[in-house]
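Incident log entry.

Two folding requests arrived from the same account within the same minute. Monitoring flagged them as a possible duplicate submission, but the sequences differ. Recording both here for audit purposes.

Request one:
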Amino acid sequence: MSLLSAEAEISVRFSEVDMLTIVWHGHYVQYFEEGRLAFGDKYGLGYMQVYDQGFSIPIVKLNIDYKFPLKFGEKAVIETTYVKSDAAKLIFRYTIKSKTTGKLIATGETVQVFVDTQGILSLTVPDFFLEWKKKWLSN
């Protein structure tokens, strides 16, 4: 089975940097979000597609390892990779690299769970997600 991944490109905006012209650490969470959006678009697992199935997928865990700062005006590529799990959750790993310099900027991981429209945590994998897995993860 090959890994499912998608890429998104961002440009560092002036509003994302501090007085030293480096990206404020909190903006990396938004960059991961851009990566998840690209993944959802590519593989049919966008937020509204999940919502149409009666679920939201809030983040319950976030980890970021900062390696090298991004600066104002740089372009970066966020690679988002799905991590297979049998549990009722989504796990994504991220790699952010500077398109300008090629340097590794940050790595990270998020865990999201399935919550129904009443706010109840799903302890079993929703049927639509089982179908998604069959489509994209079968050999």
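Request two (distinct sequence, not a duplicate):
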Amino acid sequence: MRAFRNLADAEVELPAAGLVLVGPNGHGKTSLLEALLYLEVFRSFRGARDRELVRFGEAGFHVEVVTVAPRGVAAGYDARTGEKRAVVDGAVAPRLADALGVVRGVVFSPSDVQLATGGARVRRGFVDVLLALVVPGYVAALAEYRRALRHRCHATGDVADWEALLARSGARVAAARRAWVERWAERYRAHCAEIGEPLASGVCYASRATDDEAQLAAALERSRAHDLARGTTSVGPHRDDLRLTLGGRPLGVYGSAGQWRTAALALRLVEAETLADGTDAGGPGAPVICLDDAFAELDAERSARLGRLVEGLAARGSQVFATVPREGELPAAVSGLPLRRIRDGRIAA
């Protein structure tokens, strides 16, 4: 890696089982995980813009991972031009979408509570990134939908043409989301129970539209006058949500802080299982598990239960990376991993 955040330029060998990275806050622990998983979908899992990932005073950054397969994926960003490109197995990818998923991983962190408490956009983003990795054609359908959405209310030509594109691509997006939720809802419920939630937990795909192309086209036509007057599109998968419930009630409204964290952990566990399943796209196997100070805000019982679940993922082949500020705070689940220290962006044994 080169010129990525505050990390020193270096080649870092990552043990097969994973490692624990110990160091003070602000010295690069999370940045290392961010550099590794940048190569999954070529953006920061922390939501940072590419320009913000460039070390101060540098013109761009470069990150690369070579796996044991062996396979290699690299990404470079030029801050002067805003150009970003990916290289897979030595060949430049024609499109970033062609390079998605060579690296696959799941990050557990305290900020995941936003999956339970944040708006629908947060949960849609969670599902969209996941489906981009496991459902063939999803990236293209989502990009087509977003392009049509931008143009529909500002079209100078026939609005019906953009509505037809919205209906076709939107139906594909909504159908893929709904199918994923229905397939994994029971695993979400089971994980909530395993983490210690006694009340019935639920997840469903909440949509005011439909994943039937003809019906979505009709709904867009009916809302046309209303939407054009307001410069917006009121129906479609961009309005949908991943609805989380607890005891039949909205989790975000009636849940406690501990219950929100349980739900977020359960979603991340389902994400890991989806990536490991790989049946939709012949995926590369068990994903990397990144625990970014993930145990910090959990009570002892939830921490122990999460630890056992992480051990189960590791037993099925996942490489595990964990960050902690002090060695004395090492969770039992990762105590057997090789330990590295980081200070001022430099990693040492």
